[in-house]
Design brief:
The protein is mainly beta and about 475 residues long. The chain is built from three helices and 33 strands. The protein has helices spanning about 5-25, 175-180, 430-465; strands at about 35-45, 55-65, 70-75, 80-85, 85-90, 95-100, 105, 115, 120-125, 135-140, 145, 155-160, 195-205, 210-220, 225-230, 250-255, 260-270, 275-280, 290, 310, 315, 320-325, 330, 335-340, 350-355, 360-365, 370-375, 380, 390, 395, 405, 415-420, 420-425. The strands form nine sheets. Strands 5, 6, 9, 10, 11, 25, 26, 27, 28 and 31 form a ten-stranded antiparallel sheet that branches.
Length: about 475
């Protein structure tokens, strides 16, 4: 007669466990990256054949729902979520790896990219320019918050030179002769000795800026112009540079055809001591352009001497000068600079970071550069149900889960990164509310079983007494 009490008590115990699971889901309905659990029950049998009554129920297991939750947009550039399969990887101080779906990351005071629980996010260091992976996964850490300078190697100057201008410095190489690099008054070339001048800033090897000034004057023929390339004499550190030659870097000619486009360019390099070295189009061009060689740092062996390509919008293709779509001209209009540009830049401070869908963390710097820094790694498991929940939105691998399969976002079955977002809990509060009602009803039904067994047992004892 008291057989039914056992199954009812087993059901109550199992339902309490199921209630615990549902209560935990409900408690974490707002927990970032939380994955809902569900408890499964299974029956207990103690006999075989046609008279199987059963001994009630027991907890069969608790499984995780690893489907993605919804994504909440945030204003933090370091927040990210996994759209699909995968976990972020965090390493603790002892070198242990832990896994999370909570992408609320930030940089700590030491430049480490850390999770909300303080674990260091893992990823690959990237080549700043090419974005290629460098080595194995490691702590994502910014060891420097500055972008190194880049020396100028190419200057493009597009000018129009007035075809109606006069030759103000008559004679061959008159502009170079008119230059006086040690003029105490700083008037290195007289205003009445040239038709036009233009300046452009360049960067040396340590990121300091310097002005390169080009002077132009009409040559001996209507289609020829002389030019000189100069720097501030006080900044000229070329080995042996002295006297009139201080700051005088190069001289040459620009020749235009009847339509006013460039047909020929020549250049001679000044070594700083007054020796002029003619440049040959067959041997001395870089990318089809002549180069000049300022030295602003002044190493004793001249190793800090720069090589800067001078680009007037025309390049030599091996047989002739070919004009770009935008090139220097000689037209009947005032002399002016149409366009100029120079590569190179100074050192820059990190201003912001960005994250792409493939998990690449980029840095934007005050010098205008955007550099690749790291790519975040994510991991998946053959049996994620075997992971151990350790709290703090973290999981640890076990023998049941197997080892982590680590890869780049968007590859090998791994999800992409959702930047500027956090993954919300995937708990369905409506489903949990219904589940709580059903658990309550089942609990009450099993209490009724125990109550009924008790009443029937009492009736039997009354008859037998």
């Amino acid at each position: 007669m008291i057989y039914g009490i056992g199954p009812a008590i087993s059901a109550i115990k199992a339902l309490v466990k199921k209630l615990d699971v549902s209560a935990n889901n409900t408690a974490n309905v707002q927990t970032q990256g939380f994955k809902a659990s569900s408890a499964s029950l299974q029956d207990v049998s103690a006999s075989t054949g046609t008279s199987q009554v059963g001994l009630g129920t027991t907890l069969g297991g608790i499984s995780q729902d690893y489907s993605s939750g919804s994504f909440e947009s945030t204003s933090s550039a370091t927040d990210m979520a996994v759209g699909g399969t995968g976990f972020f990887i965090g390493k603790d101080s002892s070198g242990g790896d832990y896994y999370t779906r909570d992408g609320g990351f930030h940089f700590d005071k030491n430049g480490r990219f850390v999770t909300t629980s303080g674990h260091v996010v893992q990823g690959w260091e990237l080549d700043p320019v090419t974005g290629e992976v460098q080595g194995a996964t490691r702590d994502v850490t910014l060891t420097s918050f500055t972008s190194p300078p880049e020396e100028t190697t190419h200057v493009k100057t597009i000018i129009n030179l007035n075809s109606d201008a006069d030759d103000k410095s008559a004679g061959t190489n008159a502009l170079a002769i008119a230059w006086d690099g040690d003029d105490p008054d700083g008037r290195y070339i007289s205003d009445n000795a040239y038709e036009y001048r233009t300046s452009i800033k360049v960067y040396d090897g340590v990121g300091s800026t310097h002005d390169i000034t080009l002077y132009f004057d009409k040559g001996d023929s209507a289609s020829t112009w002389e030019y000189v390339v100069t720097a501030d004499p006080a900044e000229d550190k070329r080995v042996g540079a002295a006297g009139d030659n201080l700051g005088l870097l190069a001289r040459g000619t620009l020749v235009f055809d009847d339509s006013g486009t460039v047909s020929d360019i020549t250049m001679e390099i000044n070594d700083g001591t007054g020796n002029w070295i003619a440049q040959n189009v067959s041997t001395d061009l870089i990318n089809g352009h002549f180069t000049y060689h300022p030295d602003f740092l002044g190493t004793a062996d001249g190793s800090s001497q720069m090589s800067i390509q001078l680009d007037f919008g025309a390049s030599y293709n091996g047989s002739s000068w070919v004009n770009d779509s935008l090139s220097s001209t000689q037209h009947s209009a005032r002399s002016n600079t149409v366009y100029y540009s120079a590569d190179g830049y100074g050192a820059g401070d990190l201003q912001s970071v960005t994250v792409s869908t493939d998990g690449v963390i980029g840095g934007t710097y005050s010098n205008g550069q955007t550099l690749h820094l790291f790519q975040v790694a994510i991991a998946r498991f053959n049996n994620p149900q075997g992971l151990n929940k350790i709290g703090g939105n973290l999981y640890a691998k076990t023998s049941e889960s197997g080892d982590a399969i680590v890869g780049r976002p968007g590859t090998n079955g791994l999800g992409n990164i959702v930047p500027n977002a956090l993954e919300e809990s995937n708990v369905d509060i409506a489903k949990e509310s219904v589940r709580l009602i059903l658990i309550k009803r089942a609990f009450q039904a099993n209490l009724n079983v125990i109550r009924t067994e008790e009443e029937m047992t009492g009736d039997l004892l009354d008859i037998l007494s």
